Structure formats: structure tokens, C-alpha cells
Amino acid sequence: MDRSPGDRPSAVDQPYAPSDPPDQPPTAHAKLDQSSGNQPAGPGAAGEALAVLTSFGRRLLVLVPVYLAGAIGLSVGFVLFGLALYLGWRRVREEKERSLRVARQLLDDEERLTAKTLYMSHRELPAWVSFPDVEKAEWLNKIVAQVWPFLGQYMEKLLAETVAPAVRGSNPHLQTFTFTRVELGEKHSSLQPLRIIGVRVHPGQRKDQILLDLNISYVGDVQIDVEVKKYFCKAGVKGMQLQGVLRVILEPLIGNLPIVGAVSMFFIRRPALDINWTGMTNLLDIPGLSSLSDTMIMDSIAAFLVLPNRLLVPLVPDLQDVAQLRSPLPRGIIRIHLLAARGLSSKDKYVKGLIEGKSDPYALVRVGTQTFCSRVIDEELNPQWGETYEVMVHEVPGQEIEVEVFDKDPDKDDFLGRMKLDVGKVLQAGVMDEWFPLQSGQGQVHLRLEWLSLLPDAEKLEQVLQWNRGVSSRPEPPSAAILVVYLDRAQDLPLKKGNKEPNPMVQLSIQDVTQESKAVYNTNGPVWEEAFRFFLQDPRSQELDVQVKDDSRALTLGALTLPLARLLTAPELTLDQWFQLSSSGPNSRLYMKLVMRLLYLDSSEVRFPAVPGTPEAWDLDDEGPQTGSSVDAPPRPSHTTPDGNFGTENVLRIHVLEAQDLIAKDRFLGGLVKGKSDPYVKLKLGGRSFRSRVVQEDLNPRWNEVFEVIVTSIPGQELEVEVFDKDLDKDDFLGRCKVSLTTVLDNGFLDEWLTLEDVPSGRLHLRLERLTPRPTAAELEEVLQVNSLIQTQKSTELAAALLSVYLERAEDLPLRKGTKPPSPYATLAVGDTSHKTKTVSQTSAPVWDESASFLIRKPHFESLELQVRGEGTGALGSLSLPLSELLVADQLCLDHWFMLSNGPGQVLLRAQLGILVSQHSGVEAHSHSYSHSSSSLSEEPELWGGLPHITSPAPELRQRLTHSDSPLEAPAGPLGQVKLTVWYYSEERKLVGIVHSCRALRQNGRDPPDPYVSLLLLPDKNRGTKRKSSQKKRTLNPEFDERFEWEMSLDEALRRKLDVSVKSSSSFMSRERELLGKVQLDLAEIDLSQGAAQWYDLMDDKDKGSS
Question: Does residue 755 contact residue 661 with C-beta atoms inside 8 Å?
């Protein structure tokens, strides 16, 4: 077809280039044709002449080197050599140009192919394309494309107005932190970086929620630049990719517009995240950030998006239970037993691969953000781990259990395989015990998976604890419950120095597990709205410790210790209230919601062991016939045969009273001003050490602390005593002394002032007493009473008895894997004190022949716990022996075979109890009837089978304790009675009051009262003299046993009156208190040296008095 030079080619005449998309308008080729069409038809005559002259000049220029060589007189060889160099250089240059053209062509082809692919991805899929569970949602993508520019504006404001101030306040090195640029990418393009590939709706869930899974993909050229001007540091993000499944929950559904109360969003599994950082090296050089790394930052960002973290957007005001929507209770707990693996591939190679070794496998177990790592088994293709982990499951279906196995290497660990399992299958099965094949590798991994349901009451707590005692769990013991703490807010926290607002954060601890909240800056009324989760081994004995601190952790703003046993009696195991903070301001308080749930394995395949004391439990007195015996076997012993030293231990009570004339170690102003010292005492005896409290700024300190240690009659023992001055860096030495125990063990008592050695001055007042255990329980009540009287607030509770245990042997322990005998050892424990025996190798009838001793403070309530375990095999049996059974036994001793729970085994042990009676405490314990004459005060009956009475060299009070539980007591009055002990402790210069109990209190309403006792020293009515006991729930006969002290002289005490009121809370929300009765004691009319417990009749407010 002929065209004129000025004609434009039509779209019909111009074909598409092969690389152009069919829907793309032809641009580049059209422009090329247009430009070629506008050029002139051919060059003119002047152009042709110029070309001929240029060609002739180039040829003439080539002859110039030949002419110069001839003129100089060089040979033809030089000319040929130069010509060869030129040709070689020209050949190399042509090769480089050809390579560059090929590379440029490949790059152009790649760009065209990428553009074509991206263009096709933005088109709607054909109608016949479908997926079984995922629906297309192109309408959502169109909405996102429309909203995307406005979302970028919101993010820019959020980062500048909210995130940047928080970053500046979080670290003093980041006070000049600013965002200099925020762009989410594709701001002016028709292509959107965020796309929703598919949507899946989960039917059959709760009726008050809608559950959606969005498969999202984000590929954008996001640009976020930050600057820290103080360190001239610039960094940022340039490009990011994110792909994963985002779960969206619409709940609760309500009957008013907008129908949906809130929207929750989170990733079920960790999404694939890739961020292109700029200037990261500069940012990590800033002080305070140098410990971070690129990988740690990526992990933190990815984990922030994954369960249990959620993004909650309330859609209606005043939405109820926002905290539970933001952090709901788990659906359940999965106990994962990582048992073993087999058939793993060998990754270790030696001698450059010529010799094939094995592998050093370990496993990573992951559920959401919860990750656990097993120990490494060296040189083994069939490892045995035997470890147990517990994970919280929040979403079913959706979450997965992922196990990855690696080979440990010095440089980079080798991947051996992985397996994945949806937690919904564990929920359906209850218990799964299977070998799972490893994907992307060879071999199998053996898992036992147990689904633990959450129970909202404590009815089955004993059953769960009994079952857990027989569960083999490593590295942590199995949990019996979980605790979820919803930390809401605080009020009226104290200010920092200079009346500055604090930056409060909270530390929550249960035993050795501590979690921290975020810091809220510049406020004494912070709002956290965070949730924390804890596993509990035994909620009856554990406590929640709460510390409110400034973000520097140096200043404590308040504290709270909450026994978790309190939740066991609360409705649905839940407390939702304000808590008063101690060591804080008068009105400082913390609002929390605490929710406890028991972990119960509900499976027909699992049988809980019988609880001791139930009909299913073994009868210890009925021993069945022994099977498997032979004529030649020696007879089984019926009692233990301990050596002669068993049960001969004594208890040494060390009373650190005071010191005088200590040297001053504190210096101020570079030593120009002489201060004092902050002394404390360290004691060492028999491998144990004790330390007193620090007395601030005193050269004549008074500690008055009591320590107790179990001692034997081995000669040559010494008590080492050292006194130090407490300092911030290194404590200064104030003197030492040594005390030989020979005199104390022989005479039973020592009260001396000891001169401190290696220092110019100073002496220490110690009182040492030997307590010999007595095998009778007749004096136990008096001992407990005496201990409560002489107990100091600075010392631990005094021991009332000594328990000696001799563990001889065991029999019929279960075999390992059905055929192999175990390697058993035993653990004896009373409270926090435990003793572990030796391990006897491969036998089901071990002989230990070991003994242990324990200090017992409350024999009526404590128990001896024995656990028999196999080395590497777990629990073989357990025994719980309440010490109350020893109190009713002959000579306070039990010596026979005991059947073990959770197994067929038996143990032969001897447990004997000895009561510790102090004859030098300032209180003489004697049994009396309720009515006694004054002449009886001079009587001194013989104690302990004729042992001589040794009087104390120091002047002491001598008082008698009455048996208030005698049948001769008078009946209670119409309002009931309160049992009190009031006495003056001259050693401490303190008035001591002990509230023991109440009985026969008046019930005014339908429910029993919640009584507590209030004490007030008249005529003062201020807070300084007011004391208050704990509150007992719904009882007419509460037991308190609480001690209260007032520091004053004896003359001042005799001028006072003690006002005792028994009150009850009217209701949970009301501050009103109902008076159940009161009594007023004139201390001048009471013999304060008696220290006797007595019942007093309660009177009305208008008729006060005592009986």
C-alpha cells in the first residue's frame, strides 16, 4: 500500500507486537512508525559528497603510521605488529558490545513478560474457574482499590501522631525520632498492591459471630523513611511483600444497627513477610538498639500479626467485654508429647563426604507464636526425646501443629523434614497417639496429642492433680489450670521525684514466670487493656505477684500479692474488681479481671487413678498374697532397719538479737563527712547460710530475728557469724565471730554477747537454744501457742516439730516398655523442702537406705509427698502421707509398707515426728484447766520425763497458757464469743494481740455473715493503732489465728483500752459494715505477763465489757 510522507498509519494497518498484551494499545511501535514516516525520502547531493570525503580521509589516516615508520627507518615488522594489536583490540570490543546487546534484549523480554503477567492477574478470572472452599471476591478488590489512597492518608497520620511519640518516649536515645516520608505504594497508579485472592466463610460456628478467612497478597513499593537527628541516622523501608490467610471475625451480632458490634482481625499462621530495608545498619548502631538484628525485627513484626495478638475495631459505643473480645479465652489446651522419631536421614559427612555418619536431631514444635525446642540427641537416627509441651489453642479450625526436625551443626542446621496437623483433628479425637510421616524428608515422628477442656469450676481439681502426679512430663511438670489476667487500668499512682508523672508498666509473676505490660507514658492513671496467660501446676498453693513500676524498673509504684486459692471459691473461678495496691499511695488501686480454668482430659480411653481415701484407692492395711515368690527367696521385711543415728537430730534455734558499737563505714562528700552503717548479719552452719534484714543508719542495730537449722551431734561444729555494712557496690566488713556448738548441744542453751573479731570495736548479742524432738503430741497445742506469741514479724514461722523419714526400699515397680526394669530414684518433699535419693540402676525392687529430716510448722495441715520416678522413663508411683496420721500414731511413728498411687509398686519407709518444746522462750507451756488459782503460778511440774529445768540467765517473763477448749468452759453469750490472747513482750517492747477465732456468732439474714475482727487501741482512734484481720466467708465460727503488734512501753500499754469489734460486710458493692458484737478490754485490769488465750463474750455497742 502506498502512503505519502505525511500520512499516519491506521490502527487497522498496524499489527500488534508479539510481546504486547492483546488488550494493550500499541504505543512503542506506533511511535516508531510515525517517526520513520516523517523522515525525508533520501540524502541530498551535499550529503553524498561529504560521505565520500570522510571515507577517503579515514583510509589516508591509516597510511600515516606506515609513512612515519619509513621516515624513522623502522622495519616492516613493527608495522605488522601494530596492525595485529589494533585488530585484536577491535575484536574484543565487538564481543563486549554483542554481549551487552544480548543482555539488554533479555532484560527487555523479562520486563515485557512481567508486565503481561501482572496485567493478566488484574483481570477477572473466567466464570467457569472455581475452587471447592474459596470464593472469588473481586468486588472487595474494587472497594480496596477505591479506598487505598485514603488508607494511605490515615496511615500517615497514625504514624506521625501516635507511633512517633510512642517511639520517642520508649527510649531516651530516640527522642529525635521522626517519620520523614510515608507512602503505601502505587499511589497514582491504577494497579493496587493489596489484593484479596479468595474468601472462605466457615459455617456452623457460633450463632452470634461470622467467621471469614481472607487469602490476601500485598506486593507494593511502600516507602517509609525515618530519621533520628541526634545520631544523623536515616533508615526506612522500600518495598514489602506479605502473603497469608487473614481471619476476620464479626462479633457480637446485635439487634441494632450496624448489626455487628466489633471486627477482629488476625493471622492464624505466621504470614510470609519480606521487607526491603534501607539504612538498617545505621539504625542498629544507635545505643539501645545494638542488641537487635534484622532477623529479630522481622520475627517480631510477623509475630505481632499472629494469634494470640488481635486487632479489634469496635463499631458501637460502650461495647461490653471489649477485653474478652480482644483476648478471648482459649478454646482449649493441647498437651503435646514429643516422644521419638525414626528413620531420619543422615546428614553428617566426614572426610569430604567419603564416610557417611548419622545426624544430631532436634525438633521445633510450633503452634502459632508458641514455639518449643527439644534437646539435641547426638549421633542418632532414631532419637528418643520424651518431652511434653502445652499450647493454647484459640481458633478451631485453622490453627496447625507444626513439627520441624533439624540436624544440629556448628554452622547451619540441616533440615530433616516437617509435619503439620490441624488442631481440629485433635479436638475430634480427644487423644491421638500416632507416628506421623515427615514431609520434604524421610522418617516419622511419634506424637501423643491430648485435648484438655477448660472447666469453669473447681469440682474436679483433686482428680486433675492426682492424675498429673502420674504424668511423665519434661522439662516442665504438667499443668492443672490456666490463668488469664485482663489488666485494665490503675488509678492514683504515686508521682516520681519532683512531682513528675510516672511511666507505669506492670510485671506479673507466678513462681519463675514473669510477663510485662507495655509502658504508658506520663500519667498516674494508666490504661493498659492487655491480657496475660499463665499455666498453673497447683492453684491451691501458687500466688500472683503484681509489681507496678516505672519503665526504668528502678521505682516501684505499687505491689499486690494475690493467692490463687481465692479464685477457687469465686463464682466461675473469676474475680472482676479493683485491687488495693500496697507500698503505694493511699488511694492507689488496680483494676483487673482474673479468670481461671481447670484443664480436664475428657477421654474414654484415659482412666483417672483413684484418689487416696476413696473406695477405689488401695487399702494399705490389706496386703494381698505375694505372687511370683519362691521357696528360696528371703522373707520380705515388715519393718525398716535404720542405723543407730536415725532420728537423733536436734534443732538449733538461733536468735539474733542486737549489736553495739559497730564501726561506721559510710562516708559522704568524698570522705569529709562521716556517716554510720547499714548492718546485717550472715550466719553459716552445716552447709547452710542465713541472712538477717538490713537496719538502716544504725551503729547499735536491733534485729530480733530467729533462724532454725537441723544439727547432729557430730563434735567440732561451729557457727560462723559475720556482720556487714550494706552498700550499693560492695558490702563493707564489720566483724566476725565463731561459736562452738559443743556448749549449746551439751547444756541446751547459750545467751552471750560476742566480741567481733578483726575490727576495732563491736559486739553481737546471740541466743542459741537446742530443741530436742519429743515423741508425744500432748504438748503440741501449747507449742503452737508459744510459737505464735514469740514469733517476730521479721522471721519465718517457727517450727513446731521435726519429721524424720527413713526410706529403705521399694518393690513391684512397673517395668519400662513392658520388659525392661527401670532405674528408679525417689523424691521426698514437705512444702518447699525436698530430698532426692540416689538412682539404683535397672531394678524394679531398689534399695535406697536413705534418710531425710524436715522442719514442720503446722503438723495438722502439712503432708509428706513421695514421688518414685525412673531415670528417663517418668513417674513410677507416688505417695501422699498427711502428718495428721502421725499425730494419732503410737510414739508419733509409722513404720510399714505403703502402697503407691498411679502404679502397682510399694515402698517401705519409717516416718516419725518429734515435737519441739522451747524451755527458754520466755513462755512456759503447761496444761491447765480453765479455772486455776493464783497459787498454781509457783508450781513447776517435772517436764519431759524428769529432765532438769534450766532457767535462762536473762530476765524473762514466766507465764502460763490455759486450755481454753476445756469442757469446763462457760457457754457462749447470745452474740457469740471471740478468743483472744493479749500480752506484753518485754524483749520486743511490744503489745501483742492474737485473734484466734470466734464461735456461735449471730446470724441476722438468710446467709451466714462474712466476719472479720477490727482492733483499736483507745483513746486513739487513728489509723496508727487500728488493726484488721482477714475476712472469712459465710461462717458463724471463723478461724483467724492472726497476730498484731503495737510498739509501746509497758506503762503506756497499761493506760490503754483494747476495743475489739467483730464485723461483717453488708454486701460486695457496699462500704457499710454490720457490727456482730464487740468487747472492750481495759489493759490495766489484765495481767499482761500471762499471755493466756481466753474466750470473751461479745456485747452490743451500747453494752461493752469483758468476761
Answer: no
Kindly give, in sequence order, each residue whose CB lies less than 8 Å from that of residue 362, ignoring residues fewer than 6 positions away. 373, 374, 375, 376, 377, 405, 406, 408
The per-residue pLDDT for 909 is 92
| The three cell numbers locating residue 93 | 570490543
Using CA atoms, how far residue 231 sits from 177, 212, 285, 286, 1085, in Å, is 10, 46, 9, 7, 77
For the cut 90, the answer to whether the pLDDT of residue 409 exceeds it is no
The edge-to-edge listing of strands for the beta sheet with 732-740 is 688-691, 679-685, 718-725, 732-740
Reply yes or no on whether the pLDDT at 919 is more than 70.
yes
- CA torsion 163-167-169-175 (nearest 10°) is -120
Distance CA 940, CA 948 (A): 11
Instruction: Kindly report the three-state secondary structure assignment for every residue of 242-279.
Output: EEEEEEEEECCECCCCCCECEEEEEECCCCEEEEEEEC
Residue 1075 · residue 1101 · CB < 8 Å: yes
pLDDT tens, position by position, 297-349: 555 555 566 777 777 888 888 776 666 677 788 889 999 999 999 989 887 76
| pLDDT-derived band at 1025, boundaries 50, 70, 90 | confident
Q: How far apart are CA 35 and CA 24, in angstroms?
A: 21
pLDDT category, 616, cuts 50, 70, 90? very low
pTM of the predicted structure, to 2 decimals: 0.44
Least confident stretch, 80-94, 200-214, 528-542: 200-214
The CA radius of gyration of the chain, in Å to the nearest whole number, is 42
Amino acid identity for residue 1069 in this structure: M
In which band, very low, low, confident or very high, does the pLDDT at 284 lie, cut at 50, 70 and 90? Answer: low
Q: Which amino acid is at 865?
A: E
Query: Over the stretch 957-991, which tens digit does the pLDDT of each residue have?
Result: 333 343 444 444 556 678 899 998 888 887 778 88
- What dihedral do alpha carbons 322, 327, 331, 336 form, nearest 10°? -170
Residue 316: all three cell numbers together: 458501637
**Backbone phi, then psi, for 239, in 5-degree steps?**
100, 135
- Read off the DSSP letter of residue 570: S
Write out the three cell numbers for 103: 543482555
| pLDDT for residue 231 | 65
Kindly state the cell numbers that stand for 475.
Answer: 522439662
Cell numbers describing residue 336:
503435646
- Give how far Cα 1089 sits from Cα of 9, 645, 1017, Å: 123, 41, 18
> What pairs with residue 597 in β-bridges?
482
* Cβ-contact 511, 542 below 8 angstroms: yes
Name the residue with higher pLDDT: 846 or 611: 846
CA distance 542 to 440: 44
Q: What is the pLDDT of residues 651-710, one digit of tens each?
A: 999 989 899 999 988 776 666 667 788 999 999 987 788 899 899 888 999 888 889 999
Confidence (pLDDT) at 304 = 62
For residue 280, give every residue at least 6 positions away whose Cβ sits within 8 Å of its Cβ, in sequence order, or none.
235, 294
Strands (DSSP E) found in 815-873: 824-830, 833-836, 847-856, 863-870
**What DSSP state is assigned to residue 1009?**
P
- Whole-angstrom distance, CA of residue 110 vs CA of residue 36: 27
In angstroms, the CA 656 to CA 55 distance is: 116
Bridging pattern class, strands 481-491 and 527-536: antiparallel
The number of residues in the chain equals 1107
Place of cell 456482730: 1076
26: left (phi over 0), alpha (psi -120 to 50) or beta: beta
The mean pLDDT of the chain is 78
* Helix, strand, coil percentages, rounded to 5, for the chain: 20, 40, 45
Contact between 403 and 447 (Cβ < 8 Å): yes
Burial class (CB in 10 A: 0-12, 13-18, 19+), 632: exposed
